[in-house]
TrEMBL record:
NAD(+) binds at D45, A46, D47, Y48, D49, S93, L94, E127, R150, E185, K301, K325. It catalyses: NAD(+) + (deoxyribonucleotide)n-3'-hydroxyl + 5'-phospho-(deoxyribonucleotide)m = (deoxyribonucleotide)n+m + AMP + beta-nicotinamide D-nucleotide. Belongs to the NAD-dependent DNA ligase family. LigA subfamily. Its EC number is 6.5.1.2. It comes from Frigidibacter albus. DNA ligase that catalyzes the formation of phosphodiester linkages between 5'-phosphoryl and 3'-hydroxyl groups in double-stranded DNA using NAD as a coenzyme and as the energy source for the reaction. It is essential for DNA replication and repair of damaged DNA. The gene is ligA. The keyword Cell inner membrane does not apply. This is DNA ligase.
């Protein structure tokens, strides 16, 4: 086999090519899984690229092998062969509900947002959620001009030629709006999937793992003739850009799409509330096995499109829709060991190591155990869970997977517990650095007190620093960080070290990066270039990248939007003092007051940021890093023509014509900043009935105070 791995593709006989293809395909599939599903890459990006290149070379010479190749699967990076296209309107995903309570909450939340009484009519549509691949079809003047996969929601792959071969997708429409983007799911029926896999096996090609992979692999073929030969189908369920509305309701719009010639799911119905939605869910679940195609839940949407428009979107999901997923897949296996992982904030996370077991088509060998209370059979309030049964090494445990979440333990079989099984004793010493592991009052998590001196925390912080939503440095992922962290000649132990890497490499006469295993002239130069490109970084990304506890992407964006520049942010965090003016009311100095007044920034997040900036070692690391960066200030999106753009607005009291959340979302959409409390910087206080101290404080400070009607008149109703 070693010889085959060395053999040039041009010299391979067909059976040698098949054997080498199998080896490479398995390695790529494993790497895809570890990178995309387990978020724990096992090989370097360079090794991964080399495997894929060789696989593609074999497939180019022996095309029969290309069918079912992991190079064609979704979840891998966008295939090079497809042009990328920007969606005019982003393709979002759906929030998930896993229980009936969450469906009731969905209805309650919407009513609260819209200020609807509990008994006001609020119909929803319910439709099966097809387990396939989302696709957006653009029609101009009734002609199909573009088909794009969801991709990352902003940019998808242009698969127009392939989509045009799908019988359910009309090429031309009569009587359609001038611009019409139809969104839906490409899928494969069970019967077509079985027949395709039989053909794959006959041709000596690898069968597809499931209908979803088969649909995705078939649509994302570089050769449209292959897609044409695959039995793909399409259900339309939504729309993007439109030159005119399709209807006044969701169901009306779906009917209009049906009239235009699209396949829409026949099980789409109207329900008058959560009880009817749940009844429909149960009915669809009962039919699931006989539908003839895979579904993984039921999608509920507010039927009235005017209400959908008012509800609008969160960052990645609409407020007016939810996917009620079917119950997780379950399997029993044995708990072999409990490992403790130390995260970037020092949290000690117990992980169950399991005898591998297949759950819903995926081999599971790890499951989360959350924290020490969970293992002991208690929830965070000290109440018994699993009827108080604890989890012990050697136990038989029931594993479940729901959606893409990390596998969890659903139950324990006490009748199979080994006689010598002992209660698990949770470590009070960090297994990575030996520092004391402490639990703050009210915190269910035990944390290592070693800070950046704990290698596990330091390396996890660095991994977070280079992660996609932070610095996202090409060629410097978790795997490379791990290697550089332990490197003695060219180490990266703190974020600033990343930006001195090229300089240190140039200064070192021996052991250049380009000469290391896994690196070459090109990859080393590319890495240094990729690092240089990130010296310019938007403020929100930098704040997120610092890895401060409680500061996620949203918190970082709120802080960045408020302070605008690194200099202002850094100065404010340095000055903020929550304890200033002991006994004074309100507590803390003006900088602290200003920080906690940011809407969405609570005292916990605020205290965490301020503590980081005041902790000497952490502060030194932040300053060393900032010295290498050109931090881009936040460019405020000022809505043109808006009378409230750039103004700081506070809402108080009861709002009668809209909810607080809606008021905030609308004000922000018009370029205003919404604060949680009144200060000298406040421009407008919108005061409803029952406004208390905020109204009197605003009056003292000379802030303009208006009522809800005046506010609506100001922003145009
Ligand atoms: O109706 C839908 C079905 C499936 C959807 C949907 C979906 O995603 C797989 N996604 C969105 C964003 C919407 N409707 C609006």
């Amino acid at each position: 086999m070693a010889d085959l791995a060395e053999l040039a593709v041009s010299k391979m006989a067909p059976e040698q090519a098949a054997a080498e293809w199998q080896r490479l395909a398995e390695a790529v599939t494993r790497a895809n899984r570890s990178y995309h599903t387990e978020d724990a890459p096992e090989i370097t990006d360079a090794d991964y690229d080399a495997l894929k290149r060789r696989l593609a070379e074999i497939e180019a010479r022996f095309p029969a092998l290309a069918a079912g190749s992991p190079t064609q699967e979704v979840g891998a990076p966008l295939a090079e062969g497809f042009a990328k296209v920007r969606h005019e309107i982003r393709m979002l995903s759906l929030e998930n509900a896993f229980s009936e309570d969450e469906v009731t909450d969905f209805d309650t939340r919407i009513r609260r947002y819209l200020n609807l009484a509990p008994d006001a009519p609020l119909p929803f549509t319910a439709e099966p959620k097809i387990d396939g691949l989302s696709l957006s079809l653009r029609y101009e003047g009734g002609k199909l001009v573009q088909a794009a996969t969801r991709g990352d929601g902003e940019m998808g792959e242009n698969v127009t030629a392939n989509a045009a071969t799908i019988a359910d997708i009309p090429q031309t429409l009569t009587g359609a709006p001038e611009i019409l983007e139809v969104r839906g799911e490409v899928y494969m029926s069970h019967a077509d999937f079985a027949a395709l896999n039989a053909r794959q096996l006959e041709a000596g090609a690898k069968p597809f793992a499931n209908p979803r992979n088969a649909a995705a692999g078939s649509l994302r073929q570089l050769d449209a003739a292959i897609t044409a030969a695959r039995p793909l189908r399409f259900f339309a369920y939504s729309w993007g850009a439109l030159s005119e509305p399709l209807a006044a309701t969701q169901l009306g719009a779906i009917r209009r799409l049906t009239e235009l010639g699209f396949s829409t799911n026949p099980l789409t119905v109207l329900c008058d509330g959560p009880a009817a939605l749940i009844a429909q869910y149960r009915s669809i679940e009962a039919e699931r096995a006989t539908l003839g195609y895979d579904i993984d839940g039921v999608v509920y949407k507010v039927d009235n499109l005017a209400l959908q428009a008012r509800l609008s979107f969160r960052s990645t999901t609409p407020r007016w829709a939810i996917a009620h997923k079917f119950a997780a897949e379950l399997a029993w296996t044995r708990l072999e060991a409990i490992d403790i992982q130390v995260g970037r904030t020092g949290a000690l996370s117990p992980v169950a190591r399991l005898t591998p077991v297949t759950v819903g088509g995926v081999v599971v060998s790890n499951a989360t155990l959350h924290n020490e209370d969970y293992i002991a059979g208690r929830d965070s309030a000290g109440q018994p869970i699993r009827e108080g049964r604890d989890i012990r090494i050697g136990d038989w445990v029931q594993i479940y997977r729901a959606g893409d979440v990390i596998p969890k333990i659903a139950d324990i079989d006490l009748s199979r517990r080994p006689e010598d099984a002992q209660p698990y004793s949770f470590p009070t010493i960090c297994p990575e650095c030996g520092s004391e592991a402490l639990r703050d009052e009210g915190d269910s998590v035990r944390r290592c007190s070693g800070g950046m001196a704990c290698p596990a925390q330091a390396v996890e912080k660095l991994k977070h620093f280079v992660s996609r939503a932070a610095f996202d440095i090409e060629g410097l992922g978790a795997k490379q960080i791990e290697a550089f962290f332990h490197d003695t000649l060219l180490p990266i132990r703190a974020p600033a070290d990343i930006f001195t890497l090229a300089e240190r490499d140039a200064a070192s006469p021996l052991q250049k990066l380009k000469n290391r295993e896994g690196w070459g002239e090109r990859s080393a130069t590319n890495l240094f270039r990729a690092i240089d490109e990130k010296r310019q970084i938007p403020l929100n990304r930098l704040i997120f990248a610092l890895g401060i506890r409680h500061v996620g992407e949203t918190g970082a964006s709120l802080l960045a939007a408020h302070y605008g520049t690194w200099a202002a942010f850094e100065a404010a965090m340095t000055a903020a003092d929550p304890a200033a003016g002991e006994g004074a009311k309100p507590k803390g100095n003006p900088e602290w007051q200003d920080l906690i007044a940011i809407d969405g920034v609570g005292p916990v997040l605020a205290a965490s940021v301020v503590t980081s900036f005041h902790q000497p070692a952490e502060r030194a690391a932040i300053d060393a890093l900032a010295a290498h960066l050109d931090v881009q200030p936040v460019i405020r999106r000022v809505a043109t023509g808006s009378p409230v753009a750039g103004k700081i607005v506070v809402f108080t009291g009861t709002l009668e014509r809209m909810t607080r959340a809606e008021a905030k979302a609308r004000a922000e959409a018009l370029g205003a900043k919404v604060a949680g409390s009144v200060s000298a910087k406040t421009d407008i206080l919108v005061a409803g009935p029952g406004a208390g101290s905020k109204a009197s404080k605003a009056a003292d400070l000379g802030v303009e105070v208006i009522n809800e009607d005046a506010w609506l008149a100001l922003i145009g109703g």
